[in-house]
Structures are given as structure tokens and as C-alpha cells.
Amino acid sequence: MPLTSPAESDSRRKDVSAVCAHCGLPVPPGLIDRDATEQFCCRGCRAVRAAIESCGLGNYYRLKTDQTAAAPANPSGRAYADFDEASFLDRHAPLVMEGVRWTELYVEGVHCSACVWLLERLPRAVPGLLEARLDLRRAILRLTWDTRVVALSAIARTLDRFGYAPHAGRDVEARAARQQEDRRVMIRIGVAGAGAGNVMLLAFALYGGYLHGMEVEYTRLFRWTSMLIGLVVLLWPGGLFFRGAWAALRTRSAHLDLPIAIGLAAGAVAGTVNTVLDRGEIYFDSLTGLVFLLLVGRFVQHRLERRAADSVETLFTLTPSFARLREGDRVREVPVESLAPGQIAEVRPGESFPADGAVSEGESLANLSLLTGESRPVPVREGDPVFSGAVNVGRVLLVRITATGRATRVGKLLALIEECSRRKAPVVQLADRMAGYFTVAAICVSALTLVAWLFLDAHRAVDHAVSVLIVSCPCGLGLATPFAVSVALGRAARNRILIKGGAVLEKLAGQAAMAGTLFLDKTGTLTDERLSVVAWREDPAQTHASLRAWVAALETQSAHPIAWAFAKEATGDDWRATLTAAHDTGIEGTVGEHALLVGSAPFVRERLRELPAWVEEARQDFTSRQLTPVCIALDGRLAAVAAVGGVIRVEAKATIAEFERRGLRVEILSGDEPATVLAVGTTLGLSPEQCHGGRGPEDKVKAVERAKREGPVFMVGDGVNDAAALSAASVGIAVHGGAEASLAAADVYLGRPGVTALVDLFIGATRTLVVIRRCLFVSLGYNLIAAALAVTGVVNALQAAILMPVASFTVLGMALWMRTFAPPKEAAPCP
Amino acid sequence: MSVIYVLLPLAFALGIAAVWAFVRATRAGQFDDLETPAHRILHDDDDDDNEPDTLR
Q: What are phi and psi of A578, to 5 degrees?
């Protein structure tokens, strides 16, 4: 059965620029097969479509509403054998009953309704798989399967063939515990809401009776009912505040729970006494409403913090934690934890090394940028040491393992990170800091009121003192911060800035922050981490208008990291480029009738015998500028030299100048060659003292700690080598494309490359703090006025009941509508 | 004896029933994922056949 309608396939035949029949991205012109009804942008997508259809799940393509996926499908072809190890199953897959287990896996690439459909129909394609449920937002697939019929690795392979590469999440039990906690929070809010609503209804009746008269019998009934519901709400959902206050008392620390608990307790006792004695106010309507609103405020903040942490954790989990172990001729996939020194591991292109070791067979390029900060891949050959965390970017390597786990270089760095984060003192949020003063003030004023009224009217003294405690219960204070913070976190997340907690915002805000130091890592922030063609020099005697486009067309077919720099410039013109040979240091191919050679100078020299003088000159010039020269020969004659390197981002200079104008000291702290760092720094207008190159992880931590004595330190970095410094800094900021260790150590994750995100972060944080301060000001102002009225005995129950929510809603409105983080300018496509 | 003595306990009972239902639903995980079920409902339960369905 044809899967595209005749009309659709007709239009595809005519239209040269087709879209991929799997992922919906444009198909490169060279790959269009004019005779086929379905076009594919890559082999991955073709394989995935075939796999899906062979399982009878072709309906997927009809359900797909969102036509473009984030990226072409890329089945990894992994065997997932580590998923069958007993240790893995014990940790990640609890037993449901004899032979049946369940687990949760992160799946890459889920994005729309059709993915839900496809993944949840997996049990039809895989016998023995009992149930598959997808959580779309978190991209978590919950699987229940019969271990006697099918192995988890087989299910994982099917997922992989469908283009959804699965990854083991962290302990399912930890996640289950977290889910339980979320449910408890939800129940508390629900119960508090229901209670508050019902007490409010009873209060309407009571106030109606208060104004128009009501029989004592019914008044008493309503008051007792209010008390009953009110006490349930205060003790069950409201118990949270009492526990928090108790903890604050025990640790002698200030926490907002303390004044809240005092207000609630005073209200509850006074209300109960008044109900039983049948006189005065009962307060339960205000108290239950308060508990409900405060719980909602906390829930909202908690949810957004959790969401940011979740996104970061997803990134964290997406890195493979398995290794390919070579035993004789066989290759077996094992969990990284089970590796031992002396074993031989196979590392394929694009994978990271699972442990430290020495190359025992093969030649390749290794990208050590996560370890050293050096962005250029270094060649490795037999006998050379390689390190866990580095990425193999060339060809398959066999590595004899020398150190694993905590003994590796990365492992030692991780230990350093843990030590740094242990030393970091917890942050006390502004509202909590104020809570201490607040409690003391409220108790003092209440005591004064008691004493004063004892002389004036001893009868009503206790009543007035209690009402001071109740009206000064800082509901606005308790609401303002969580709401302002959560709104800011939500908006920041839409801007692809993930902030792990509200306290971080306070440290990033305002004048205090600007008195500090900002350490930048070179790669990722100041320069584009992907290489580009920075300079291009052609043979002065003879130039070709299209040479650069030809090279680009040819390089699109190579997977070499340097090829990317050229391939980016591909124009999409239909040059018929054919790659005939690819080596580590260069490629050979034809474009149209022309023969092309692209590669390093030795590679080209080997094939052409000689290099003209202008080429040598250009090479030396480029090398001195820390760029990689690439020679290009056309039809057996050297035609051009290109320089490849990281490009300094255009907006970086202006941004740094702006930061410095505001008083922030900006310095570059990098593991790169000092000369390179100095070159980048001078281009950006920094003085040589501000550029520190060749710094190892320990040096970075030292630099951060030294600067910390003079003010807050903000560290921006992406590598494992930065991670310890990130956690040592006041605020650690990990940037796009960074290592997982730096994600774990950082407080903020910038999902966009470049420095503009940094500016947004500082400005947004400052605005958020302004909003919080204004909200606090309004709510304190309200409390002051209300307390004054209560002290003088002017305020009555009805007025207080109206004033209380009015103040809360003013604060809420301010928190919601005031500007913090700018709305995203445009939805940048995922790179 | 006023009707309120009947209505109030009745309302009370209804309220408790609603809270009980909510607590049960939450404990059963009904509120864990609020996004995916919205997509799931669009899919027919039994579409083994390869006939194009109405969702085109």
C-alpha cells in the first residue's frame, strides 16, 4: 500500500527540494532519488522508516502532525547487552511478579502525538512486552515486560531501530520516591483547597448573619462546623508549616515557616477558644485560605525548579554508560562500572572513551576539549594515552584500559567537584532572612499590645494581642517570593536558560553582583565551539569562482571534524561531488570533471611532490594565528589554502565591554594554550592580565577561590576541567554543549550558545529581585497597616477577611505581570 | 428542627466524598502526567488495519 497519497507524491516528483519521508527535514540535493516516492535525508531515516513499516506501524506517518522533527533519525546500532546484566536489572528494573519486570527509560527524539502512538503500540511489534507508556513531557517510557519471553536489550534495540535511542535513567526507586512526594504535595493542596472553599461558604453565611441578624442556634452550628474543617486543614496540609517551624527552631535558623506557624497557631488557638466559649472571632476562614495559598505558591516554585533540574538531568542521562569490551574476536557491551584495567575496549567514532588507557590498535583523532579545554582534536596512535571523557572523532580504536572509575582523570576531577560543593554554604533566601526580624517584630508588637490593653481594657487585651499575631502572619511574604521566582524561572526556561533554584537569582542580581568577577571559558562562550573556515587564500596567479563551493560539496560527504567547517558553507547547488578516498588527514574526490584533493600540507605534498612558496607563507601565517591550515589542490595543482579555527562570536566584544562598564571584572580562564587565549583576549579588548591560559582544573579552582575573597564569582564553563571551578564559584554557569559533569556542578545551564544568554541571565535576575523587593514592600506595608488597626482595635473580622486576600492578590498580580526575563526573540532551532 | 441539620451533614458527606476521590486519584497517579493523555485520546484503540483513518 502506498503510504503517500498520489497528489503528494506527484508534487514531490516535481519539486526538487524534497523533505525527508521520516523526519521532515529538507533532503540534500545529492540524495534525491527522482524515481522514488519517498525521499530520505540520510540512511538513518531510511532505516527507521523501513523498521516502523515492517512492524505494521506505518500509521505513524499519518498521525504525525508536527512535520519536522528536531533532528534526523540516527539509530546507533547498539546491542544494549548491558541492559541484560543482572546488576543493571536489579538497580533499574523492579520485579512486578514472577518473571515480569518494569523499568523507565529516557528515549531520545520523542516530540509529538505520533510518537506516543508509535511507542505505545510497541507491545504489538515485540512479543513479551506487556505494556509501554510514554510520558511525553519528560520523554520517559515506562515498560513492563516478561523476562522469560523477551530480553530488555531486544526491546531497546527495537526502540533504537525506530530512531528513539533509549537510555537508562537514574535509580527507579529514587524517582518513585520523588513521585510519591509530588503526589503528597498535590493531596495537601487539594485538601487545603476543599477545606478553604467550604469554610469560606460558611463564613459568608456568618457574615450575612452578622450584618442582618441570625439565630444563635445556627451561628453556633456554623462556627463549630468551621472549626472542625479549619482544624483538619491546619493539622493535615498545614502541618507542613509547623514541622518547618520546628526544624527552624531546632537548628536556630531563620525560616519563613516560623512566623507563618506562629500566626497560624495563634489563630487556631484563639479561634478554638472563641468557638467553645461562644464569643469573638473564629478566624478559620482566613487561616484555611492562607494555608491553601501558601501551599500553591510553594508548589508552583517547586515545580519550576524541578522542571529545570529534570531537563538538566535528562541531558546528564543521555550520555552512554556502557563500553564495548573486546574479548578475542567477540565484542560484548558491558556497563562502564564493570570494566577492569588490562581489558581491551573498542571505541567507535563519535563515542567517548569509557576509561583511561593506552591505544593498542588503530590511529585516530581524539577530542580532549572536555578535559583540557583545547578545542582542536589531537592525533592519537598506538601507545598514546587516551582519557575517559575524551571523544574519538576519527576511526575505530582499541584501547588497553589502565584506570577505571574514580581512578581516572575524570574520576579524580569528580572527587574535586564533590569536595567543592560540600564546602559551599547553603543560601538563605531574602524572604527567609527577613522572616527572623519579622517574627521578633510581630511578637514584640503583640506583647506591647497586650500590656497596653491590660491598662485600657483588660477584658479585650488577649483578643487584640492575638489579632495582631494573626494579621501580621506574612502571607504576602510567603506568596511573593515563590511566585516571583517561579515566574522568572519559567520565563528563563523559555529563553533556554535553566536555573536550578531561586536562590541563585538573588546572587546574580543587582549592584552586589556587579562588584564581582566573571570568569569565562574560551570555547563555547566566546568562540563558536564548531570550527569554521576563517580565512581563504587562493593561488594569486589563477583563481576559481566556484572552488570554495566545490570543496564544500565534497566535504559534505566526509565525517571528519574539520570537514564540518567546509560543509557548513555548502550552497545546495547541484554539484555532482563524489568522494573517492578518505584518510585521516585528507580526502580525495571529484566535483563534475575536476579532481580535488583537500587535506593537511603533508597529505597534499605526498601526492603533489611540491608546495609553492605562497602556500608555505600562508601556512606559516595561519599556524602562527593558532589556526589549522588546509591545502586544496585542483586537478593536480595547488589552488588554495584555507584556515580553519574557532570563530570569535560577533557579539562577544560589545557584551564584555558592557559588563565592564557596569563594574564587573571579566577574565578569561582557560585550559587552552596561553598564546591562543591571549590572542582571543586582545581581540575582545581585554588586557593581558585578564587572560589566563594553560590553567588546569586545580588552578581554576584556586583562581576562583582567590577572587571570591573580593566579591561574588561567576564562572562560565563547559568542560569537565571547569566543573570543579563551577561548583566552587558563587554561581557556576554551564554552557551549551558542555560535559555532563559541568552540568551537575553548575547552578545555571545556558541552552543557547554565546554570551547574549549571559546578559539575559544577569538582567533577568536583577529584574526578578526588583519584583521580589516590591512585592515584599507591598505585603509588609499591608501587614504594618493591618497590625496598626489591630493594635488599636479598629479592625473587625469582616474588614480583616476582605483585606487579607486583597493584599495576597495584589502581590500575586505584581509577581505575575511585572517584567523579568524578556520573552524569547525567536525559537532557535535545535542544533 | 430545621432542614439545615439535614443539608449540612449531606453537604459535608459530599465534600468528604470529593476529597476522598481526589486523594485516591492522586495516589493512583492520575495527575502525574497531564500532557500525554491529551495526545493518547486522539488515537483509536483498535487500528490494526492499515486503512487510512479519519485523522489525516
A: -130, 130
Using CB atoms within 10 Å of the CB of residue A78, give its burial: 0 to 12 exposed, 13 to 18 middle, 19+ buried. Answer: buried
pTM of full prediction above 0.90:
no
DSSP, res A405 = G
Predicted pLDDT of residue A609: 72
User: Taking CA atoms, what residue in A is nearest to B44?
Assistant: A117
Q: How far apart are CA A80 and CA A762, in angstroms?
A: 43
A423 in Cβ contact with A701 (< 8 Å): no
- For residue A456, give every residue at least 6 positions away whose Cβ sits within 8 Å of its Cβ, in sequence order, or none: none
pLDDT confidence of residue A559: 65
Nearest chain A residue (CA) to B42: A113
Mean pLDDT, residues A97-118: 83
A548-598 pLDDT, tens digit per residue, is 888 888 887 776 667 777 877 776 666 677 777 777 778 888 887 888 888
How many Cβ pairs closer than 8 A exist between chain A and B?
75
Instruction: Give the contacts of A176 (CB within 8 A, at least 6 positions apart).
Output: none
All three cell numbers of A341, joined, read: 584495567
pLDDT by residue (tens digit) across A705-726?
Answer: 888 888 889 998 877 778 788 8
List chain A residues with CB under 8 Å of B11. Answer: 198
What are the CB-based long-range contacts (under 8 Å, 24+) for A701-710? Answer: A701/A416, A701/A420, A701/A725, A701/A728, A703/A519, A703/A669, A704/A519, A704/A669, A704/A728, A704/A729, A707/A516, A707/A517, A707/A519, A707/A665, A710/A516, A710/A517
Q: Shortest CB distance from A62 goes to which of B5, B36, B52?
A: B52
> Under an 8 Å CB criterion, which residues of B touch A?
2, 4-5, 8, 11-12, 15, 18-19, 22-23, 26-27, 29, 31-33, 35-36, 39-40, 42-43, 47-48, 50, 52-53, 55-56
**Average of per-residue pLDDT values in chain A:** 79
Residues 6 or more apart whose Cβ sits within 8 Å of residue B24: none
Is A62 within 8 Å of B15 when comparing Cβ atoms? no
Q: How confident is the model at residue A191 (pLDDT cuts 50, 70, 90)?
A: very high
Express each pLDDT in A741-750 by its tens digit.
666 778 888 8
Rounded distance between C-alpha atoms, residue A322 and residue A80, angstroms: 8
Tell me if B22 and A58 make a contact (CB, 8 A cut-off).
Answer: no
Q: Is the dihedral of CA A33, A39, A43, A46 positive or negative?
A: negative
At A234, the pLDDT band (50, 70, 90 cuts) reads: very high
- Residue B52 confidence class, pLDDT cut points 50, 70, 90: very low
Check if the beta carbon of residue A311 is closer than 8 Å to that of residue A492: no
